[in-house]
Write a structure and sequence with these properties.
Elements: H1 4-25, H2 30-37, H3 43-62, H4 75-89, H5 94-101, H6 107-129
Helix pairs in contact: 5-6
């Protein structure tokens, strides 16, 4: 499976599986996410925590280590903006794609916001901040 076609097929299958799972858990439903962020229902938090626990175990099994180095100056403000955007829009950048594919067309506004935000970030970084993008591809 080292050919481009094989990798593409594997990515498509994995993406469809992830989309199916995420949708069935409820991460594609704005009302479910709203209940999670307002602490009305802990089911979503537990699903998220379970996923983090599984990936930690997988990383330990595969002996994945973080590459030592300095932390990018934009990590904390970026994390705050990402979390705020997630809470307002009802999803991280992947969720609106799932929502649109499920027929929830207002998520197109969120996708447009993601694209505009990425472009504004690149513009502001080039003009004002000149932060090293590292591997983030800013």
């Amino acid at each position: 499976m080292r050919t481009r076609g094989g990798l593409l097929l594997a990515n498509i299958v994995a993406g469809l599986g992830l989309g199916y799972t995420v949708t069935n858990i409820g991460f594609g439903d704005y009302a479910e996410l709203n209940r999670m962020f307002t602490f009305q229902d802990l089911r979503m938090f537990l699903a998220f925590a379970g996923a983090v626990g599984i990936i930690v175990c997988v990383f330990l099994l595969l002996r994945v280590r973080r590459t030592p180095g300095r932390i990018h100056a934009g990590v904390v403000p970026g994390a705050v903006l990402f979390g705020t955007g997630w809470a307002i829009s009802g999803g991280c950048p992947a969720i609106p794609i799932i929502q649109v594919s499920s027929g929830y067309l207002p998520a197109v506004v969120t996708l447009v916001g993601v694209v505009v935000g990425m472009r504004l970030c690149r513009w502001a970084n080039a003009r004002y901040f000149q932060l090293d993008s590292g591997s983030c591809g800013v």
